[in-house]
Design brief:
The chain has three helices and 37 strands. The protein has 512 residues and is mostly beta strands. 6% of the residues lie in helices and 42% in strands.
Amino acid sequence: MSLRPRHSLGVSSPAKQRKKAPKKTMATRANRKRLPSYLKPGAAVEISSDETGFRGSWYLGKVITIPSSEDKCQVEYTTLFFDKEGTKPLKEVVDMSQLRPPAPPMSEREKKRVIAIGEEVDAFYNDGWWEGDVTEVLGDGKFSVFFRSSKEQIQFKKDQLRFHREWVDGAWKPPLEEAEGEESEEDKVDDTQDEEEDILPRVDLETTRVIAKQIFSTGTIVEVSSDEEGFKECWFAAKVVEPIGDDKFLVEYQDLREKDGIEPLKEVTDFLHIRPPPPRDENMDFSVGDKINAFYNDGWWVGFVIEGMKDGTVGIYFRQSREKMRFGRQGLRLHKDWVNGTWKLPLKGGEIKREKTVSCNRNVRPKKAIEKHKFSIGTSVEVSSEEEGFEDSWFSAKLVEYRGKEKCLVEYDKLKAEDGKEPLREEVNVSQIRPLPLEQVMVCPFEKNDKVNALYNDGWWVGVIRKVLAKSSYLVHFEKTQEILRFHHSQLRLHQDWIDGKWITNFKSQKV
């Protein structure tokens, strides 16, 4: 197939379709097509402040007007006033990132819940809700609360406290606990798993031992589990170094390291804790109730889908740790059990499983990446650019076709052709594309000097955290343009590099 010149694609240059790297004079957040309901005039909100002495506090108010820039809006406070008499409510123009819906009231179940030392709470104080930590449980239903922002410790009654929540991606985290008598999603998950354990056939130890001895030879790619506390229901990728006797294997982990942090970890495991890698899912969509594996901390952890999000992320509940987290589609796979040499695959929504025999021949040795193209036609990818002004940026697209060994045609998800209607198509080098990064949930906030990608002008731009601000906001420095801009936590992701067919996380910038 002859390579067509760029002008034959109907576009003059991608530079006219993409927007340049962040500039100080431009808006610092992605354009919004539709405002959330809580930002419309008249809507009740809670308002935070970046002002010294007020960080970590939220005040009730309502939205008055929204300027045309869509970056700021005017609000009116409910409990703060201009005058001493309290007749003229205070009005102020604030950034939209300082607003959220009013926190939900505690459910009946939460009202009965014991508040323990170390609990994160909001305390109602000086007409607002202040974030703090319970440091002491006193008599008469009182608690000592420490406020990190002011370094103060004050006593409060239980009715002056509420459990702390964060407004993240349009939802409260953690979500409101159900009322007494209602079965929570977590309880349903526990019941479902108990039922599934009854359905699964018993493991035939002798059959499993014989099969393991036959298929797990030196060099075989496998997954290994552990009964160690804190690591149950997790599988780690490894390869067999050598069989030991009739029922044990020396394995070398792919992602786990020895104490020196350099050498791959080697460990002896038995035939009950080793299995082939599960067959891959093809374009699988997940539903509430599905039993899945989520890739986190270098391993595949067993969990259940408890909620689906409009942005494509999925809420997962882990039974062993009783934790809830969000993951993107790329970090999930449908759960499968290796029983007596066959894979047991669950159907959708936790229905009864079907049995499928899977060949293990493919697990003898991994194929080299250079044998064929890495990505199939139609695969979602990210594309970089070699043009000046677009270095260190990645744009989402899908692979349309290969053009020889070195070139391919991609169609961008959000960039448009010159007519402004059709998606932009562009011929790029194969070396410029990579799969969509694994979604990593940042349980803790980013820190100074963390290397991140910032979502800006329809693309992900590589930057470094230079300053941590209040209310989950950060100043990000872009080395290529020497610009520093402000982003909210939801507009950032941890930086990862695609190297030799594997994602490498660069948590800290090399430049401090």
